[in-house]
């Protein structure tokens, strides 16, 4: 949904960022800004800054930053349009109604009815667990050491032994048989007619990230098969793109999530305080679920069962995490089978230690592979080393591969040179990778980053101007938006300078120009580069002059390299040379 810029800005201005973020983070005023613990990564010392003047936030620890829309998008995992709507509702701003086609209206209405019937079914199961009929289910959950509070938090319920209780209840609420069947709550056959899909089972409502019930998992009481039964896929329930417990885990603000195999593991871990735990939904872990996790974290800790099936599932999940760009580590659950058993027997502190000791996924793969070889037999041992070399060829980046070559050689007492030769040999045979090029001196070559230096001086200048808007008129004759050689920097400078020339100062509105979260984050960083604290006015004037001169000089060199390719570059070079000559003889005063 597109909203006019004027309306978006009205919504932003009516939602003071300090007030909004205070509802999520405990803030304390220090000087001109407010500080608190960053909600987007784990930290003990506050590095999360909220500026009422700029109407922006920025974390000097993890780099998260933006305006009030960015915060809501990141914290609530909303789209830009959803964030605008939420804040509009908060401020009492009326947004235009979304115009749906007839087909879209029908589809949206059907989706809403599926969510409604699932919610009603969840309420019914919840009530049954706490009634006389659900006693067997309640005893089972209590026997698994779940508290009343935990059962309530996850909305646990019970499906009665009789075969059509839920059908009768939902009919009484006005829901059609067709809708019940479409939602996967009921089935039909000629012998039994309409009947409940779930019966004699403890029920686990499955919720999406916004806490809406989209499906169910049921654990049978007794020895009937299947032990666990899940809702079929529907318009609102895609097993491969949802995770059990993610509605709670996404706000745990941990730097990682713990990926478990089953519902009970997730619930037990949340009860023990590990609220970052999630599980796949009765299926193997999928790339869709990995991409879902990627929105929230970069690291995933696997808490799969320690038996053969669990190891196999962990190895499969590791591959999916790698493909998605996530880092995976494996929690050692031994001597117990799963996290639920582990925590009950050894407690939460012991489990915390296992989290800290979680094994690098590559080393876990090597360790599991080692079981297939007899390392006392030279031939088998050589074959194992060759297999390690094959695995090392899986690293496409030379630096990463070389780091692992050295680490593996140290762990398995192999000569680094011999292992490297094996890798090169295997790569040459298969064409997988090129050998690592090593400096002859044995010292790593120093990185030459003139581009980063150029960008840094531009960031410093934009931050200084937003901190002290009064300096803009003093430098306006020397610096233009075209002097910012990064496209995003140039867009920010263009809007910032335009506003300042009209006497307007509104950095938070500039961030709203960008729809992409990563661009909003980068734009926020431009306004929050750390400036060196200088004691005297003379030192500050010299520092400002140096930054302005550096930005202009970098701009001159940048456009000089583009003469012949860009017509406009000639004008920039001529103007740049003239400005540099003038700047070399000019003192920029900070006096009013």
Could you characterize the architecture of this molecule?
- With 592 residues, this protein is of the alpha+beta class.
- The chain has 5 domains: 5-91, Zinc finger, CHC2-typedomain (DNA Primase, Chain A, Alpha-Beta Complex), CATH 3.90.580.10; 102-237, Alpha-Beta Complex (DNA primase DNAg catalytic core, N-terminal domain), CATH 3.90.980.10; 241-366, Dna Topoisomerase Vi A Subunit, Chain: A, domain 2 (3-Layer(aba) Sandwich); 372-430, no CATH class; 450-583, DNAb Helicase, Chain A, CATH 1.10.860.
- Helix content is 50%, strand content 11%.
- It is built from 25 helices and 16 strands.
- Strands 1-2-3-4-5 form a 5-stranded antiparallel beta sheet.
- A hairpin with a 5-residue loop joins β4 and β5 (65-66).
- α24 (537-560) runs antiparallel to α25.
- The two termini are 46 Å apart.
- 35% of the residues are buried.
- Residues 433-448 have low confidence and may be disordered.
**Mind describing the biggest β-sheet?**
5 strands, antiparallel
As residue ranges, the low-confidence spans are 433-448
- Level-1 CATH class name of the largest domain: Alpha Beta
Strand content: 5-15%
What is the CATH homologous superfamily assignment of the largest domain? DNA primase, catalytic core, N-terminal domain
**SS-derived structural category:** alpha+beta
Task: Enumerate the strands of the largest sheet in spatial order, edge to edge or round the barrel.
Answer: 1-2-3-4-5
Q: Please, how many helices? A: 25
Mean pLDDT: 86
Overall radius of gyration: 30 Å
* Number of self-contained structural domains: 5
Number of beta strands: 16
**CATH-defined architecture of the largest domain:** Alpha-Beta Complex
What's the CATH topology label of the largest domain?
DNA primase DNAg catalytic core, N-terminal domain
Give the proportion of residues in helices.
40-55%
Instruction: Tell me the distance between the termini.
Output: 46 Å
Shape: globular
């Amino acid at each position: 949904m597109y909203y006019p810029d004027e309306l978006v800005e009205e919504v932003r201005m009516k939602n003071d960022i300090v007030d909004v973020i205070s509802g999520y983070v405990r803030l304390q005023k220090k000087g001109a800004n407010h500080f608190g613990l960053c909600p987007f990564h784990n930290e003990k010392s506050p590095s999360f800054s909220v500026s009422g003047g700029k109407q922006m936030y920025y974390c000097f620890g993890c780099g998260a930053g933006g305006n009030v829309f960015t915060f809501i998008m990141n914290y609530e995992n909303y789209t830009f349009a959803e964030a605008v709507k939420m804040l509009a509702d908060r401020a009492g701003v009326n947004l235009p109604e979304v115009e749906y086609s007839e087909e879209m209206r029908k589809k949206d209405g059907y989706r809403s009815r599926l969510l409604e019937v699932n919610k009603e079914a969840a309420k019914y199961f919840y009530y049954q667990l706490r009634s006389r009929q659900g006693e067997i289910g309640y005893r089972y959950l209590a026997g698994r050491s779940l508290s009343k509070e935990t059962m309530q938090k996850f909305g646990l319920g019970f499906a009665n032994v009789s075969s059509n209780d839920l059908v009768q209840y939902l009919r009484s609420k006005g829901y059609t048989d067709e809708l019940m069947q479409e939602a996967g709550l009921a089935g039909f056959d000629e012998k039994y007619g309409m009947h409940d899909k779930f019966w004699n089972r403890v029920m686990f409502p499955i919720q999406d990230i916004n806490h809406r019930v989209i499906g169910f998992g049921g654990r049978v009481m007794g020895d009937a098969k299947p032990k666990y039964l899940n809702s079929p896929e529907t318009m609102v329930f895609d097993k491969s793109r949802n995770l059990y417990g993610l509605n709670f885990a996404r706000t745990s603000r941990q730097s990682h999530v713990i990926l478990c195999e089953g519902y009970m593991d997730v619930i037990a871990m949340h009860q023990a305080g590990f609220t970052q735990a999630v599980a796949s939904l009765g299926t193997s872990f999928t790339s869709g679920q990995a991409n879902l996790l990627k929105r929230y974290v970069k690291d995933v800790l696997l808490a799969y069962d320690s038996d053969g099936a669990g190891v196999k599932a962990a190895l499969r999940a590791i591959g999916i995490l790698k493909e998605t760009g996530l880092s995976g580590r494996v929690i050692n659950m031994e001597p117990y089978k799963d996290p639920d058993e582990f925590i009950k027997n050894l407690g939460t502190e012991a489990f915390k230690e296992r989290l800290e000791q979680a094994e690098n996924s590559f080393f876990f793969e090597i360790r599991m592979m080692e079981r297939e070889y007899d390392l006392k037999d030279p031939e088998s041992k050589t074959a194992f080393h060759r297999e390690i070399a094959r695995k090392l060829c899986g690293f496409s980046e030379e630096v990463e591969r070389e780091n692992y070559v050295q680490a593996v050689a140290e762990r398995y007492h192999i000569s680094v040179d011999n292992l490297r030769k094996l890798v090169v040999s295997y790569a040459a045979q298969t064409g997988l990778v090129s050998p690592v090029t090593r400096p002859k001196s044995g010292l790593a070559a120093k990185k030459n980053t003139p581009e980063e230096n150029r960008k840094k001086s531009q960031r410093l200048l934009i931050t200084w101007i937003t901190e002290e808007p009064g300096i803009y008129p003093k430098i306006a004759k020397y610096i233009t938006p075209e002097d910012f050689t990064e496209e995003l920097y140039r867009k920010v400078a263009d809007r910032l300078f335009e506003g300042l020339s009209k006497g307007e100062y509104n950095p938070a509105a500039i961030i709203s120009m960008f729809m992409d979260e990563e661009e909003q984050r980068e734009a926020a960083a431009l306004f929050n580069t750390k400036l060196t604290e200088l004691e005297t006015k003379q030192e500050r004037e010299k520092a400002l002059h140096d930054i302005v001169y550096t930005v202009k000089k970098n701009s001159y060199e940048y456009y000089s390299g583009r003469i012949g390719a860009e017509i406009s570059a000639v004008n920039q070079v001529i103007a740049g040379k003239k400005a540099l000559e003038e700047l070399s003889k000019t003192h920029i005063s900070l006096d009013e």
